[in-house]
Design goal:
mainly alpha
């Protein structure tokens, strides 16, 4: 297979995408280490966005959303992957940014319209990143000079399985009250790993 054509614009966009995702990762890890009173095993990541630590949650989701959109542009500019995976990646990016402005309703509080919008945006985002990973991993593997195929395949399944798990543990009440937070954080970890791997590989291939 012939080598990929260098595309400095796409490489720079991919590098910026990696930086944005890394920034979101730092914010997420930081807030999980703070004495917030939330239980990482049980409570949703979005619970941080409904209290005094909301700035960390907003920084996390906006950074991940911006990173996803920058990566979308980089892949559209520098690769020939089909549009399906890119559309899903765009849906993830847009909903991650939007959700920063619709805080969740905490457990036991009155359900609000804002909280319902939050749940809808979260459902779309988690579904979108699963489909994006499912579509992009095999498409990128067939791109000239792209490596990390085995890693991307593994991360693709990690994203899909944890996305499904997050949905299941959200709707099954006994699971929601015991392991939802853990499963959702595993989805965040898998998503971050997938986005970073694609972005870093794009920088390598397109530089």
């Amino acid at each position: 297979m012939s080598g990929a054509h260098p595309d400095q614009t796409a490489a720079i966009l991919a590098a910026l995408a990696a930086a944005a995702v890394a920034a979101g990762t730092v914010s997420l890890v930081w807030v999980n280490l703070l004495p917030t009173g939330h239980r990482p095993m049980v409570d949703a990541v979005s619970d941080y966005g409904a209290g005094p630590h909301r700035a960390f949650y907003r920084a996390t989701v906006i950074s991940l959303g911006v990173g996803a959109l920058l990566l979308l542009i980089a892949l559209a500019h520098g690769t020939g992957v089909p549009s399906g995976g890119l559309i899903w990646l765009g849906a993830y990016g847009v909903t991650r940014i939007a959700i920063a402005f619709f805080p969740t309703d905490l457990e036991g509080e009155t359900v609000t319209a804002t909280g319902r919008v939050h749940l809808l945006l979260a459902a779309v985002a988690f579904t979108a990143i699963a489909f994006a990973a499912a579509d992009l991993a095999p498409a990128l593997r067939s791109e000239p000079a792209w490596g990390a195929g085995g890693l991307l395949d593994g991360l693709r399944w990690a994203v899909i399985v944890t996305a499904v798990g997050t949905g299941v543990t959200r709707v099954v009440v006994p699971l929601r009250h015991t392991v939802f937070g853990l499963v959702e954080r595993l989805l965040y970890a898998a998503t971050i790993a997938f986005l970073l791997t694609v972005a870093i590989e794009a920088v390598r291939v397109l530089s």
